[in-house]
Amino acid sequence: MATYTEPALLADQIDRYRVEGYLHVRGVFDATTVAELADAAQDLSERSDLIDIANLRCRWQHDAASGECLFDCFDPVIDLSPICRRVAEDERLLGLLRGLYDDEPCLLKDKLIFKRPGAGGYGLHQDYIAWREFPRSFTTVMVAIDPADAENGATEVFAGCHGQGYMSAHDGEYHELSPDALPAARSEMPNLQPGDVLIFGGFTPHRSGSNRSPRWRRQLYLSYNAASDGGPQRAAHYRLFHDWLRERYARHGLVETCFR
Q1: What are the pLDDT digits (tens) for 221-249?
Q2: Domains in the chain: how many in total?
Q3: pLDDT above 60 for 258
Q4: I want to staple 148 with a disulfide (CB 3.0 to 4.6 A). Which of 77, 111, 113, 192 is the partner?
Q5: β-bridge mates for residue 158, sequence order
């Protein structure tokens, strides 16, 4: 586990990331920044003008007990929140990523997951999707706004398993992995405090459980690619992603969609 001191990583931290496929860095963001993120998250959670099943920006999750469909995420989010944009462009993050990439990081994707009490978790998966345009250097930085632990559905990673590469069919679809395919001994669940970050690559298998607590588990997810792996491509990614979503939604009868 690393402790943040400056916008750079030491050689042993970089080596650890390359071996384990993830890195937990404590205290990257100060209390003032976290408070701004928390205020923004609260405001965004009340945006009834945006929270709509037809809005391609919105993601949904089932209540683990009742099965009720719950609003769970804005994706993207930096155009809605100045503080989320500032954090995405903050040297405290970009410096860490430069150390891992040995290259300039380019923001590819940004989302704010709320994970309110009762919200279900996400199955075991890898973030990489086998699209021709999808960068193999895809790396996610999770910024903790609230404490994250097993009770409220913290992220569980399978250390070292990224070395197996992409473990699903190369068909451009989202796939969950069977837990039987991964060694249980490699399962690790970093407990995050507000201001901590968890960095993991697109091939690192991970999952999260339901939020069984009365507490929210809000996290800002910022995903990047190396400049040498396609350069800036966030706008192009979201065009492709929205086309992919429209096709998937249409399979389930939702054909009138929008983005706002």
Answers
A1: 999 999 999 999 999 999 999 999 999 99
A2: 1
A3: yes
A4: 192
A5: 187
